[in-house]
Specification:
18 helices; five-stranded mixed sheet; single chain; alpha+beta; globular; 604 residues; 2-enoyl-CoA Hydratase, Chain A, domain 1; six-stranded mixed sheet
Length: 604
């Protein structure tokens, strides 16, 4: 028998790029699997495959923390097979494979290990030298979290060396605010390098695996263990890690009873149809169900099925699959709010350009107007600037820094208006650098939905852009009255910025923003599906704990001219005439009147 097994393993090794072995005790098969990052092989992971689910790749918690974050966890196997995994910061989890549970007394502390480059927990340094995070502070004690994997049909394994979970769940559970995650396509592990511009993409080569191509071409069907595992993982992830911004059709149902029950009970008929598709062995039906779930039932602007993007953007790659998804999930694509938002992203800047051109900075009367269309850092530009090889890049921070400096050189300018009329979001790092520069507030606040903790990060900003963050940065102050111009297109960080500015005395002009109250988190499933969702880790709130999802409170509304025939059934997505928003003489008058009246109000 052993000789036959040896021949079998040798044959497998001859036709595969991965190497195979049996783990100690023979309870699983171990495959040494290549890891790719930006098209380069950066190492290998010894993935485990257990007989109960031969298509599901498992990996150790300790090994994953070492691989992804270079942190050394300790493992102790106790009575009854209960395994304790301890973080260097003192937090721990207790895994009970027999019960199928993991208990985390302080999950937020354990989930984001201290990183080698700074003694901090859970917050990565900003990608540019203008800001760094010094600490993360939890204002409340953590609620104990019990992860019940058995409820979802997901097995846990453990020995004296590690606790083993599906690699996809490790990736989702241990992803951080910098969106570090891993995805497995059945042959290769990919570690994507993401920024705000490519969240909806997949790493190059992800669909090139032999089995993945066969599934997409309809030559193979999804295996039974794969179907059960993917459905269980999907329910597990959304039940525990969804941030509940409150706007999607299934949000309340998931919060109260979990994804599967919400689909069955809150959406009778439709929900059963989606579940049937999620459990289909046919890849086209499965992808169509995922599309319906994310693009319609879960859509909140931050939640989307990213794994379908390469297929729908290139219909010639898998024409049969493309047509099937379009046929089965076409209504979901039509219902997805991103399409009309894309139209607004084109129309509002076009209307604005007719009045203001494409300038980042303009003055009118007592007011300077700074146009910020995205909070996306120009990383290469800042690296060049700090190396003395380039000018200040004109991203949001560069526009703000140079704009404030220019406004301060004109004694007539008393007001600064940030134009966020076409700002659909971006990086919280860059946003906080601007808030610190403008207001001196260096606390970035959030709420952890899963652990019930209010949290804030302390940031430090190079306000004078001299390459050193020190006490001289505190000397940079601007004495302006501030305003923010917003539309319904202002979303995510474009929604958070007006709230924070309003809290520091700014006047908000225009119409309520489009919402967006959670940071983005990537989720992965064992079968290779990738999605992004509103995350539990950092739900954005005002310092008073006010929800940001319904949009900011406008102090000085501006009426847009509605079309005779609405362009969308949803009034919030119907496009109108925003000409009145770009009358800079009127805006200057509104700002002057507002702050003149505020100055006349006697102090309480």
């Amino acid at each position: 028998m052993k000789k036959a097994l040896a021949f079998l393993l040798a044959a497998i090794m001859a036709v595969s790029a991965a190497s195979f072995s049996l783990a100690e005790g023979g309870d699983c098969e171990v495959r040494s699997t290549p890891v790719m990052r930006e098209g380069k092989r950066i190492g290998d992971l010894d993935l485990r495959f257990y007989p109960a689910a031969p298509h599901v790749a498992y990996y150790g918690v300790k090994d994953y923390a070492a691989f992804m974050y270079q942190v050394d966890l300790t493992v102790a196997l106790g009575d009854g097979g209960v395994c304790t995994v301890t973080n260097p910061n003192g937090s721990f989890i207790m895994a009970d494979p027999a019960a199928g549970t993991i208990i985390a007394p302080d999950w937020a502390l354990f989930q984001s290990p201290p990183t080698p480059y700074r003694d901090q927990v859970g917050v990565k340094d900003a990608p540019c030298a203008w800001t760094y995070y010094s600490e993360l502070v939890f204002e409340d004690a953590a609620n104990t979290v019990v992860f019940d994997f058995a409820k979802y049909g997901i097995a846990i394994y453990a020995d004296e060396n590690d606790v083993y979970l599906p690699l996809s769940l490790l990736s989702t559970m241990f992803t951080d605010l910098a969106v570090n995650y891993a995805v497995y396509n059945g042959e290769t592990v990919f570690v994507p390098v993401l920024d705000m511009s490519n969240l909806t993409g997949l790493p190059d080569g992800f669909y090139d695996g032999k089995r993945m191509r066969a599934l997409l071409n309809g030559e193979e069907k999804r295996a039974e263990d794969e179907i059960a595992e993917d459905f269980g993982e999907l329910c597990f992830i959304l039940d525990y890690f969804f941030g509940h911004p409150g706007t999607s059709k299934l949000d309340k149902g998931i919060a109260e009873k979990g994804l599967e029950a919400a689909l069955r009970e809150n959406l009778p008929g439709r929900g059963e149809q989606v579940i049937e598709g999620l459990r289909s062995p046919d890849m086209g039906e499965y992808l169509s169900a995922m599309s319906q779930l994310f693009f319609d039932l879960l859509d909140d602007g931050h939640t989307a099925f990213t794994g379908i993007s390469p297929i729908m953007s290139n219909p010639f790659a898998y024409p049969g699959l493309y047509l099937k998804i379009l046929l089965l999930a076409g209504n979901s694509f039509a219902a997805n709010s991103s399409a009309p938002k894309q139209e607004m992203m084109k129309a509002i800047p076009k209307q604005r350009a007719a009045f203001w051109g494409n300038e980042y900075y303009r003055e009118c009367g007592s007011t300077a107007i700074l146009r910020i269309d995205a909070f996306a850092p120009d990383i290469a530009g800042w690296e060049a600037y700090y190396a003395g090889k380039g000018e200040i890049p004109m991203d949001a921070l560069g526009i703000t820094w140079t704009g404030l400096k220019k406004a301060s050189e004109n004694p007539a300018v008393k007001n600064v208006l940030f134009d966020l009329s076409a700002n659909a979001g971006g990086s919280g790092d860059l946003l906080m650098a601007i808030i610190d520069l403008v207001t001196g507030d260096n606390h970035f606040r959030g709420y952890n939905v899963l652990t019930g903790q209010h949290v804030y990060a302390v940031v430090h900003t190079d306000k004078n852009l001299d390459g050193v963050i020190d006490e001289r940065d505190d000397e940079v102050k601007y004495d302006f009255n501030y305003g923010v111009l917003t539309t319904r297109l202002s979303f995510s960080c474009g929604n958070l910025f007006p709230f924070l500015m309003q809290d520091h005395g700014a006047v908000l002009i225009g119409e309520p923003t489009g919402g967006g109250s959670c940071c983005v988190q990537m989720g992965t499933l064992s079968g290779g599906a990738v999605f992004m969702m509103s995350s539990y880790m950092w739900r954005l709130e005002t310092p008073d704990g006010e929800s940001l999802e319904d949009g900011c409170r406008t102090d000085l509304p501006i009426e847009r001219i509605e079309p005779a025939k609405p362009t969308n059934d949803n009034p919030r997505l119907s496009m109108g005439d925003y000409s009145a928003y770009f009358d800079d003489v009127k805006l200057d008058e509104m700002l002057c009147d507002w702050f003149m009246e505020a100055a006349e109000v006697p102090a309480a």
